[in-house]
Write a structure and sequence with these properties.
Layout (H helix, E strand, L loop, with lengths): L6 H5 L9 H9 L3 H5 L9 H17 L1 H6 L4 H34 L5 H10 L16 H24 L3 H20 L3 H15 L7 H20 L1
Helix pairs in contact: 4-6, 4-7, 6-7, 6-9, 6-10, 7-8, 8-9
């Protein structure tokens, strides 16, 4: 086997069907139930889901990179901040996968291995690989909304495939799993969330501002400062 990043995943396919990671991602984008049913053929462990989700998180980080620009984050810290956002994205996904597995077990009587849920639902994040286009002016927000809906459909497709649920059962698994995650983040997980915010600021080297109004003020003050420098 190769290293964690799964170089082998990019080149090696199922020997019987000749399918690889690219086929898996393409099938997920097409909402192909069979691809999710055969997800174990693409990777014998959970690396497939982690890899796809990590790349999706990096793509989303790039789409939101303007926040780092406006906050005047230095180049090296800029790159590190993008990597950190991708890691946070993966961490959030893992907790969502676990909460979804718990909902499936206690809400629908379907016991699923965590690694299977991780692989299938990680693959369902394939549409998020295109999140970097969310940086486009005017079209960014509609595009990200479309990707979120696309991901939700892939999520439902994946749960139908691995859990044998109908459409509504898979849908409620997704919604309830997400709600469980939100409750945990706002209660027992609050210290972890606070630590995450502190770590973002520490890696960026500044107290990051993400509020839209304050971002506009920062941008305006920066433009005024540059204008003053030119006049001098």
């Amino acid at each position: 086997m190769t290293d964690f990043w799964g170089v082998e995943l990019l080149a090696v396919a199922s020997q019987d069907a000749g399918l690889g990671l690219g086929d898996a991602i393409w099938g997920a984008l097409r909402l192909d139930v069979e691809i999710f049913q055969r997800v174990e053929e693409f990777a014998p462990d959970r690396r497939l889901g982690i890899l796809v989700t990590l790349l999706a998180g990096l793509s989303r980080g790039i789409a939101q990179a303007f926040i780092l620009f406006i906050n005047r984050v230095q180049p090296l810290r800029f790159v590190l901040s993008l990597l950190l956002e991708a890691i946070f994205f993966v961490a959030g996904f893992i907790f969502w996968a676990v909460s979804t597995g718990l909902v499936a077990r206690f809400g629908f009587g379907v016991s699923l291995p965590v690694d299977l849920v991780t692989r299938a639902l990680g693959l369902a994040h394939a549409p998020q690989l295109f999140s970097l286009l969310g940086a486009l002016p005017y079209l960014g927000v509609p595009w990200l909304t479309l990707l979120s809906l696309w991901t939700a459909l892939a999520f439902v497709t994946g749960m139908r495939a691995i859990a044998g649920l109908d459409v509504w059962g898979a849908f409620w698994c997704m919604v309830l799993g997400w709600l469980v995650l939100q409750v945990l983040q706002r209660t027992a997980g609050q210290p972890v969330m606070n630590f995450g915010r502190w770590l973002r600021d520490y890696v960026a080297g500044v107290a990051l501002v993400s509020n839209r109004q304050r971002l506009q003020e920062l941008l305006q003050s920066g433009q005024e400062h540059q204008g003053g420098d030119r006049r001098e």
